[in-house]
Amino acid sequence: MQRPLFFSVAAVGGLTLACAGPTLVPSAPHAEPAPAGPAFAEAAYSAYMVLIPAEIDVNRALRDAADMHLPGISLFDDPLALPGVAVYAMDEWVAPTPTELQYFGIGLADGDAEAIGTATVCGAVATAVPPADAPAMQRGVLLTLHEVAMQHDGWVVDLETRQTFTPEALHAQRLEDWTGGVPDLENHIAFHLYDNGDYLRMVSVGMGKFGLPDLVHEAVLASDAEAMTAIANLSAQRLAEGQPVGAEGVLVVDPSQLRHEALRTVWAAATADGEGELSVHLKVAPLAEGDADNRLWELTYGETAGEERFAAHVAAQARLFGATPDEVTMDAHDEELLAASARSKVELEELLSEVPTLMMEGHQLSVKGPFPTTGGGNEWMWVEVRQIDGTTFTGALINDPHDVPSLAYGDTVSVELEDAFDYVLNSPDGSRRGWHATIIQAERAGIELE
Q1: Which domains can be identified in the chain, with CATH numbers?
Q2: pTM
Q3: pLDDT mean over 239-266
Q4: Phi/psi at 403 (nearest 5 deg)?
């Protein structure tokens, strides 16, 4: 198996949000394929709040703004009057909590969390329209909300994606990304990444605003999360642009067919070394606790149940983005390398008590351990840690074995602390600890680490 060129994914990776979440729903072995044809439902639904820190007639403010940005649209004052567009003031509402704002706040400044929690006035806009009208309606609604929030120093809450925006952030993320009436969908939805203790579950929210099903990867490795988010965003974009699902739920995603010109350019660069298209097998999936009240389709890649899915994820990334083989280096464990490894082992032992809490906060630990080869030696490979029992690290193998035929990428394996050669602890803010021996090996081999 070949590993993808991950650096090419960064420009199209999309937003991922790490938070505690629901129990993972295993992929059903005989799940029903998504129905053939366009993915749109009969209606597209959305709901927003605008929170204002001062007393104003928010209903009047929203209607005045809507007169400009939603011309000719009849506005109801009762959300139960849908289909259509409802604009109304809310007497009672639940503001986002500081924890929710930590994960889902966009562009917020110091002090905003407290101010949002004590906002004086709340207005709401809810829509239920035919999917064909959804893009234009969403743009008009966003312009309306942006104007009111901008004029009155407020914030806009997307109740579908659970994100809270400053007006400046709303404009930058939601209103500057349209090409010929087609939005860059990844700026209008969000993929939430939940750690269930075994693997990660990646599920979208917000697709219903365009009359589309939400999408889910029921289990991914943290090492693959960025690339699999990119593939999910590409699939979502093609569905939003009207590409129909084929027989047996197969969606052939081809970046060169994107209608959004700027996205097409970005994806052309990201997939220059790939094969040009990827077949995504869409399956009807059950909802888990916390999912959006919407249809849900699982993205699969021809894999069967179990750990084969992780090898299928790597194969999908390689097909779309291009790949290079895992680097196999034959290093003598000399004094410098052994000293670096010993330093890593000391730090890893010191981290043992902290790691479970750090992992719950979104940090990801990987350790490098030995695996016996057919030739009688050891092949040193990385393990993405999912569980720690005493001094035993258990998780998924995230290298492709060179001379260990009994193992494959994604297999569950264990490494003892005393056998660990190196470690890396990646933090949500992009910083990392460890890699002491790996940096030396990379420098010797002329490999640039990211």
Answers
A1: 3-23+186-324 (no CATH), 44-176 (3.30.1400), 335-445 (no CATH)
A2: 0.86
A3: 95
A4: -140, 40
